[in-house]
Amino acid sequence: MPGVFDYPVFATTPPGDTTRLFVALQGGQVRLVKDGALLATPFVEVPSGGNGNEQGLIGLTFHPGYAQNGRFFVQYTLATNDVVVAEYKRSTGNPDVADAAPVKVFMTVPQGNENGHNGGMLAFGPDGKLYIGKGDGSTPATAQNLSLKLGKILRIDVDTYPAAAPGNLPGGDPHLWDYGLRNPWRFSFDRQTGDLYIGDVGEGEWEEIDVEPAGTGHLNYGWSIMEGNHCFLSNNCDSAGLTPPTLEYPHLEGCSVTGGYVYRGAKIPALGGYYLYGDYCLGWIKGFRWTAGVATDFIDLTADLVPGNPLQLSSFGEDASGELYVVDRAGGVVYRIDPE
Predict the structure, then answer these.
(1) What is the average per-residue pLDDT within 165-193?
(2) pTM
């Protein structure tokens, strides 16, 4: 990808747009690559704050009807360590920039200290609802507390919020979908099946990938009772009612999982149906297919995709055609995965 970005954390495109790629920078800007060229003027800049490694602009997604309505959504931190989810809108006079002021602030959630496991991911599901990743705020017990938004995946209807979206988890905060998560930094929906893939960053020993069949929801992924498949801070814990990870790996193999996407592009048929994910610390990229509820057909793409120095893999990205991207935060580069 031409140009070098200042701490990129995400890359995406609006639905149906094959000429633009939007790159979110941790400092608050969204930069626009149009027809392969980086435009000089930022698309938008949000008022993010804080100097922690997990702070700044941490999420970006476009409304399914963006081509018509110009609506998009961001998640960012404030200097107070609160995390904001807000709606912005494309300028009516120039489609390559957005209006500077937000249309609406949906929620501002206190998130603990400056590295408070902020989550950050935003994505519209197949049901047209907005899904929001929230970390546990560095307070593990919050993930099991249904009265709090922390340690959860939230689900809202952007047209009727703050009313609860029908079908959410009953009995607690009205916007909960899943819970028992530590830091779901990146998750995605398989554009073909609607299955939800969650990369949940672990604590001291284990990283995990969770796969949720389309439309399921209301699942407890175990944190902070368990870390991966293992009891946390206990030799004996009650795992009844908890959903175990689809895949886990120990900190001997990495230290911070970066969830990715199921490849549904056309350029690399051999990757079709593979879910790609990586590790932020060691920079490797691996994949598997999820078949009949089990991870199978494991592959390691590191030698092909990362032949030189390891990446600081902050995110993957997916464009309107289903092709995938790799975001290197430290290197300031966004790479597209192309066939050899």
Answers:
(1) 98
(2) 0.97
